[in-house]
Amino acid sequence: xxxxxxxxxxxxxxxxxxxxxxxxxxxxxxxxxxxxxxxxxxxxxxxxxxxxxxxxxxxxxxxxxxxxxxxxxxxxxxxxxxxxxxxxxxxxxxxxxxxxxxxxxxxxxxxxxxxxxxxxxxxxxxxxxxxxxxxxxxxxxxxxxxxxxxxxxxxxxxxxxxxxxxxxxxxxxxxxxxxxx
Length: 181
Prior knowledge:
Mean pLDDT: 87
CATH class: Alpha Beta
Shape: globular
């Protein structure tokens, strides 16, 4: 029998997408998973269905996870970004078929209002949500995803700063709701 590190090395990565959804103030949408006791937050993300493009998957995941797809795509990561699941999770997640995910990340500008966001979806994945300064992402994320979030931050950071600056020159929108169930 092979040691677990060798077994995970031969497992493929699950193809997926992630969405960095940015509001008018340059803050990013993060939500807390409903299936963990850890105080870890994440951005919307998920797998790509058969026959679906990464762009279609990103918009679908956004709608499935937060109840809205009122967003415009600003940028996409140049490459697929990867993370490995911890060994103890590899056997439980995705029926044990994958070692982790390789994802295309999309930077999207939120075009709706906070009342458009509804995490009480048909199949809820989150228990709470909030807007967070983009630079704070690595501090609130689960440890095994921290490096991929740092890569997203590095790739999209300048664009987010530009979005926040150009919007702040206009009149910023006041946000209200933080959690809907």
